[in-house]
Amino acid sequence: MPTFDFIGYTPSQVDSLIERLRPELLPLPFSDDIVFIQRVQQESKVLCLKGGEAPFIRIYTRREERAQLLSERLRKFADIEIVYIAMFTPKQQADSINTG
User: Fold this and answer.
1) Are 45 and 8 in contact, with CB atoms under 8 Å apart?
2) Coil, helix or strand at residue 80
3) In b/e form, how buried is each residue of 23-56, taking b as 16+ CB within 10 angstroms?
4) 47 DSSP assignment
5) Taking each helix axis from N to C terminus, what angle separates 11-25 and 64-74, rounded to the nearest 10 degrees?
6) Which end of the chain is more exposed for a tag (fewer CB within 10 A), N or C?
7) Domain of residue 88, residue span
8) pTM for the full model?
C-alpha cells in the first residue's frame, strides 16, 4: 500500500496537492491501495541548513516498481522521497516461531 506523507506543507497545501495528484494516481492499476497521511491542524516545516524551506512528499512502499512509477509521475509536482518498507503481520510472526 503506497502511503504518502506530506512533509513541510500546511494542511491547506496538502489538500490542494492531493487534488492535483489525484488525476495522475487514479489511472494506476493499484490506485485503490494508495493512502494519504493527513495531519489535522498540524504544520511542519523542512528547514535547510543554509536557509529556506524544502517541503517534499515521502512515499512508503514495499514494491520497487510502484515506487519508480509513482516518482516518475509525481516529481513534476514536488520533491519525492521513497522509503522501502518490510511489513510483518502477527500471523507471519507466529509462523516463524512455529517453524523456527
Assistant:
1) yes
2) strand
3) eebeeeeeeeebebeeeeeeeeeeeeeeeeeebe
4) B
5) 110
6) C
7) 3-99
8) 0.79
- Position 100 scores a pLDDT of 57
Could you report the per-residue pLDDT of 49-60, keeping only the tens digit for each?
A: 999 999 999 999
Q: Residue 54 in 3-state DSSP?
A: coil
Angle at 89 between CA 34 and CA 68, to 5 degrees: 35
Residue recorded with cell 522501502: 84
Total domains in the fold of the chain: 1
What would the grid cell of residue 59 be? 512515499
3-state secondary structure at position 48: coil
Q: What's the CATH number where 88 sits?
A: 3.30.429
